[in-house]
Specification:
Layout: H1 9-19, E1 20-27, E2 30-35, H2 42-47, H3 59-65, H4 67-72, E3 80-86, E4 90-95, E5 108-112, H5 117-125, E6 131-132, H6 137-145, E7 150-154, E8 159-164, H7 177-186, H8 189-197, H9 225-234, E9 241-249, H10 253-265, E10 268-275, H11 277-285, E11 292-297, H12 303-310, H13 323-333, H14 338-354, E12 358-363, E13 366-370, E14 374-376, E15 394-395
Parallel strand pairs: 9-10, 9-11
Antiparallel strand pairs: 1-2, 3-4, 4-5, 6-13, 7-13, 8-11, 8-12, 14-15
Helix pairs in contact: 7-9, 13-14
Length: 398
């Protein structure tokens, strides 16, 4: 989780530079976009949180201080103003009493970066923090047992999967569809779900959320280690093989350790390589990761926007190189008939499923916790992973 807009940054730039011919100012409250060609996803890109291209910033202020300075001293129309910012450490926000919707209940918000989940939970118990994100596995069980804490489960549009980075290398075992299918059958996803997210995640056969427009509903491949071993034998790997590393960002290392352990049972021997989030995102975009890598996205949008980022060969984080998928994706971009467009997008998803291009993990459940001082945490909104809206967050009266 926490991965949202970055997966669509390439699309946003492309859309802005290539799709929009001109923007006409009709009056103070009305602008008109002129496009070069039909673009069914225009409102998705400019009118939702799928991308940031529709964000409005104060022109005069930016012209006065410059874009770089604006990143450190931003101003906007939200319920809080930035008081201080220490990159990678904390952000301090101060309530705007004149916020148009209503004055925020909490006058000061402090957001701290605490990498260790055990430390986050300890801070919650000691009331050094009131809301903690990303509390999984045994720690989530501990929260559920504590009468002073509340486990809060958010189920939105985030999905996670493992990508076969080397699947187009003819020398790699992953180039064989039977091997990729064996890997999917080798993993007991439901057991990992119970252990990591207490069973709140939803198993899936794809990497696009079921609630997105144009999503093809795909059943999980299923846990069947006997079948996995037979597939490996048929592919010429009766004794298994060394699969190298499976990279992952650190918060999901325990889940990937469980995946790797299950793969080892059928003979696929791999090692977990935890990486700091910025590092692994960069490595995935620059295609410097190898063997296996865990990917995920919580970006808003629809099936087409996920396909563009992770399945279209030119996508920012795609490891696929399938000419059929590329052709269908390109065709649907300007298709104005919703049914014809859906048929093309379904063909892409079905082909990726039939060719076993991914190892789907699940539609994520983001487990968080709130402390005894909290009356309203904001951790309740469908499709959004964090507390919101901030002006509604409340503490209990002392």
């Amino acid at each position: 989780m926490g991965r949202g807009l970055e997966t669509l940054s390439a699309s946003s730039r492309y859309a802005t530079q290539q799709k929009v011919k001109a923007v006409e100012i009709v009056n103070a409250h009305h602008v008109r976009f002129h496009l070069h060609e039909p673009w069914p996803d225009f409102t998705t890109f400019y009118g939702t949180m799928a991308t940031g291209v529709g964000w409005i910033v104060p022109k005069k202020y930016i012209e006065k201080i410059g874009s770089d300075a604006f990143k450190n001293q931003p101003i906007g129309l939200g319920p809080y103003r930035l008081l201080s910012h220490q990159p990678g450490i904390e952000v301090v926000l101060e309530a705007d009493p004149d916020y148009w919707r209503k004055p925020p209940h909490v006058k000061r918000l402090v957001m701290k970066s605490v990498p260790e989940a055990t430390t986050r939970l300890a801070m919650l118990k000691q009331q050094e923090a009131d809301v903690a994100y990303g509390i999984f596995g045994p720690l989530a069980e501990e929260v559920r047992r504590d009468p002073h804490l509340k486990l809060e489960v958010l189920q939105g549009q985030a999905t996670q999967w493992v990508s076969f980075v080397d699947q187009y290398d003819p020398k790699s075992p992953w180039s064989d569809t039977r091997v990729r299918l064996a890997a999917n059958h080798a993993v007991n996803w439901q057991a990992i779900n119970e252990a990591e997210t207490l069973g709140y995640a939803s198993l899936t056969g794809g990497m696009i959320p079921h609630k997105f427009a144009y999503t093809l509903q795909l059943e999980p491949y299923g846990y069947d280690p006997k079948k996995a071993r037979q597939l490996l034998k048929d592919a010429g790997y009766a004794n298994g093989f060394d699969a190298g590393e499976c990279s992952t960002d650190t918060p999901y290392a325990t889940a990937i350790e469980a995946v790797v352990n299950d793969l080892a049972v059928v003979g696929i021997r791999a090692k977990v390589r935890p990486m700091e989030r910025a590092a692994i995102q960069t490595a995935q975009k620059e295609k410097t990761v190898q063997h296996l890598t865990r990917q995920g996205s919580g970006a808003f949008g629809n099936a087409a926007t996920r396909i563009e980022a992770f399945m279209y060969s030119q996508g920012a984080q795609s490891f696929l190189r399938d000419p059929d998928i590329d052709a269908w994706y390109t065709q649907q971009v300007t298709e104005r008939d919703p049914q014809k467009r859906e048929a093309l997008l379904h063909k892409i998803q079905q082909k990726a499923y039939d060719d076993v291009r991914f190892m789907p993990i699940w539609e994520s459940a983001f487990l968080c916790a709130s402390g005894p001082r909290v009356a309203v945490s904001g951790l309740h909104r469908d499709s959004f992973a964090y507390s919101a809206p901030y002006e509604d967050v409340r503490l209990k009266s002392s």
